Amino acid sequence: QVQLVESGGGLVQAGGSLTLSCTASGRTESRNAMGWFRQAPGKEREIVAAITWTGLYRYYADFVKGRFTISRDNAKNMVVLQMNSLKPEDTAVYYCAAGRTEGIGGRESDYALWGQGAQVTVSS
User: Fold this and answer.
1) Sign, CA torsion 4/110/42/87
2) What is the distance between the alpha carbons of residues 66 and 79, in angstroms, rounded to a whole number?
3) Which candidate, 28, 98, 99, 121, has a CA 20 to 30 Å from the CA of 74?
């Protein structure tokens, strides 16, 4: 059974950077898209970025464009979210998710497997 494990969350000052990693364990034969979502207190979970298996296509939410970069290393079964120029409003629990298909989806229902989440806190 495949599991997703996030790492790299933490506390950072505004303007700083953090890198989140997501590693898949178990049988990982899927060539599906991967995504990062986040959920702030009192808010719904929202998509942040997503990437196809080849890495050819990437999606970014408007609020992270130019600041965050998603990448993947299929040999290591890893997806990485590099977050730069962090803002206090980026504070949330960040979740890695494995898509149901090869295509990028923007909804939670487009993703079949979720990690446990990593807390990111940005202080002002």
Assistant:
1) positive
2) 18
3) 121
